């Protein structure tokens, strides 16, 4: 068996794991990242695309801010289309100049992997059967198999950044872990198309036929979503049906804005809210989707992974540089406080914009009143804007 040692063993090369590794490496803290997939798969997984300013700033601190600064599209507003009538929410004006940046998660991942490997950092791709061991002892370990060989990594700490279906959270005893969950009765049918998006800002459309989102992957592609049922069969949605439905949900006045192009990818995304507490067990810390999931409506998943990593990296800096573990001890409480606010916002955006499958007349009218109020009230728009651009870390 091959044995090795590091200070922080990181499970998962998603945004959380890679960003943590990069921040710690910059302060001289040794890390090794274990990732079950190959590099190509990890770099091409299409997911998030809306970054809060705090996330962009953190990428800068991690030394990977150059490309997002040049290629990211800064958006100072979003549009809400209510039954075919568009209104703009001026995020920048309502938040004193704050904005979001549209830059694909695939690009964030490529930047982080390139920077780590260039600096001599290690990512062990295709690490199989990763298992965290001895979490409550002084020397936790990660056992895994690589190239057919059984290996063991001894660490000071383990960071579980292995996403919702990862192995780390499941190592926390049931008597310790509490979970909170909401599964929604709808999903998103998403397409990536080689065609410009209909508007230079995101359009969130609430329509009697269901929700739709019109977003982009700069510089040339659009990323478009339709509310559907979780059991939707993609085979029932040939490209022409998707385009027709997108036009219907934009409404007759705006349907002509939609640009058709070759569909490069089609997928179904289920919608779930989930939080596991606490984020620490012994010497293992959870960060990102390993600990919590939001429905994608509020564009918060990647941004929450980034804010967890912000708090956790501060805690490791303090521990290794001063010997003080106060921030490690308070990490779970501090991170969860921000997580729950983003959970609330994502839940609210999801409920207010989606048509429930069993929606009765009362619920439909309440939802409409909520949206009409939102678009007519400075206070309500400010609350949305403040949350959308991201609460402070
Ligand atoms: C369709 C879609 C759209 C989204 N849109 C947005 C958006 O606009 N804005 C936003 O902020 N968020 C969005 N999200 C959410 C965002 O993509 C996630 O929150 C983000 O990827 C979380 O990062 P993470 O590093 O915590 O987890 P992940 O990205 O899931 O990374 C975890 C990594 O761990 C690896 N792993 C898993 N198990 C193991 C194991 N046993 N051993 C070793 N490695 C393992 C995985 O292969 C993966 O590489 C979206 C998600 C989806 C699906």
Description:
- This protein has helices spanning 15-26, 39-44, 53-61, 66-71, 91-94, 105-118, 239-250, 301-322, 326-353, 361-376, 378-389; strands at residues 2-5, 8-11, 31-34, 50-52, 73-75, 78-82, 85-89, 100-102, 122-124, 128-133, 141-146, 149-154, 157-160, 178-193, 203-206, 212-217, 221-228, 263-277, 280-281, 284-286, 292-293.
- The protein has 393 residues and is of the alpha/beta class.
- It has two domains: 2-75 and 99-180 and 272-349, FAD/NAD(P)-binding domain (3-Layer(bba) Sandwich); 184-270 and 358-389, D-Amino Acid Oxidase, Chain A, domain 2.
- The strands form four sheets. The chain has an eight-stranded mixed beta sheet with strand order 7-6-15-16-17-14-18-21.
- Helix 1 runs parallel beside helix 8 (301-322).
- The longest helix has 28 residues, at 326-353.
- It is globular, with a radius of gyration of 21 Å.
- It binds flavin-adenine dinucleotide (FAD).
- Residues 11-17, 34-37, 42, 47-50, 105, 127, 130, 161-163, 166-167, 190, 269, 288-290, 296, 299-303, 305 line the site of flavin-adenine dinucleotide (FAD).
Assess the beta-strand content as a share of residues: 25-35%
Can you tell me the CATH topology of the largest domain? FAD/NAD(P)-binding domain
Let me know the number of strands: 21
CATH architecture of the largest domain: 3-Layer(bba) Sandwich
* Spatial strand order of the main sheet: 7-6-15-16-17-14-18-21
Mean pLDDT: 96
Low-pLDDT segments, ≥5 res: none
Oligomer: single chain
| Rounded radius of gyration (Å) | 21 Å
**What percentage of residues falls in helices of 4 or more residues?**
25-40%
Number of helices: 11
Distance between the termini: 42 Å
Query: Structural class of the helix and strand makeup?
Result: alpha/beta
CATH superfamily of the largest domain: FAD/NAD(P)-binding domain
Number of domains: 2
- Ligands, ions, cofactors: flavin-adenine dinucleotide
